[in-house]
Amino acid sequence: MQKLFVILLLCTVFVESTLAQIDAKATKETKRLYQSLAKISKKNILFGHQHATEYGHGWAGDENRSDVKSVTGSHPAVIGIDFSGLSGRPKEQIAKTAEALRKSVVDTYNRGGITTVAWHFSNPASGGGFYWKDSVSAASMALIKPRGSHHEKYKEILKTVADFAHSVKGKDGTLAPMIFRPYHEFDGDWFWWGKSHCSREDFISVWQFTVTYLRDSLDVHNFIYAFSPDCKFTTEQEFLERYPGDEWVDMLGMDNYADFGRNGKYNIELGVKKLKIVSDYAKKANRLAALTETGLESIPNPTWWTETLLKALKSEKMNLAYVLVWRNDVKSPTHFYAPFPEQVSVPDFLKFYEDAYTLFENDLKYIYRKKRFLFF
């Protein structure tokens, strides 16, 4: 059932705002999405799910399907994709992957939803994929930074990313905005760009070059750039230890599974403390904030959605644009983070869905277009 108050909220989104983006040439739709997210985060939160429409629990490639829609009647408001397939593979395979991703992004945009992009970037200088593997993986952040041995190769990879960004045109001919979230969970050691595998200076150098090259050299103007460590911090100083600066980031986030029930361990108070650090700094810096990844694998707790996640999100008067839970694997009977029909948490998830605070795709109106009137 549509939440009528949301239409009122989103019809008045485009009042002038001082919230700044780092790309002065951002497309109109990207600017309007940014302001919509700022407005939404003051009173509501968008629900997101990784790979929601690409595949789900026991299925893949079905038209206009998601597990969330099968349960609620609506897709998630935010749908996660991944640029992992845009490098480290034969050109023909990259082209096939790009076309599938393009359809996902364009379909989401045409429906009025939002896309966020993770980047499980295969190591450009060694084997090992995106994970760090001892005796296999190279410490490649130092190699892809300006004047590094693999810098030109990195530029070629970014050109592939830019080509994709230029390809996602909706039915009205405009480019779909995307929340681009590179080098996530950099404060851990599991990825080759992790804290133990590169210096603070090299991480910041690569981040700043990535934004500069995409935005200023390759004319990508439909990205909102999101900075998201894992949950290794407990103070603002620790959160910002590898922060490239306000002029290089549009959105601040956090990935946090550990405090919200992973391996049966809950520390909601600490999870909220960390989220508040993110939200508070975003307010100071005039930026957006989000819980960029979280979830409980297999969702064995039948009231996790309302008694754990929703209570945490509503506490402390935080301004969070969205919360995204991880993917539902096609084959695994246990690797899923959103419910599907008959899963044990479905009744509670429907309460989460009906709560006035949470917004799904069917609730969204005019997030990319300028509306100043109050009719519905």
TrEMBL record:
Keywords: Carbohydrate metabolism, Glycosidase, Hydrolase, Secreted, Signal. It is found in: Secreted. One of its GO terms (molecular function) is hydrolase activity. Residues 28-362 form the GH26 domain. Residues 1-20 form the signal peptide. It catalyses: Random hydrolysis of (1->4)-beta-D-mannosidic linkages in mannans, galactomannans and glucomannans. It comes from the Bacteria. Gene3D superfamilies: Glycosidases. The active site is at 185 (proton donor), 293 (nucleophile). Belongs to the glycosyl hydrolase 26 family. This is Mannan endo-1,4-beta-mannosidase.
